[in-house]
Amino acid sequence: MSNTRNFVLRDEAGNEHGVxxxxxxxxxxxxxxxxxxxxxxxxxxxxxxERGTKKVHVFKAWKDDVEAPKNRPDWMPEKISKPFxxxxxxxxxE
Length: 94
Hints:
The protein is built from one helix and five strands; from the N terminus they run E-E-H-E-E-E. By secondary structure, the protein is mostly beta strands. The longest helix has 11 residues.
């Protein structure tokens, strides 16, 4: 049985929208980064609050176009968008 956890995307004002699931916060952050518009030179800040806790995981996130794998299927393009995240800190809500 998998132990997936739910993480809610928060903005700077504390409004919550969008739920991403994953076994670890990084997995959910990669899913959120894939929808974002950050670049390596100007990464976007992603804040994910774990449901049921007061912990907010803060990540820097960006996407980069990379070459598709050699054994890619026919329908996959030659360049794909790959998400990257780097954990900055964990914040505690009051």
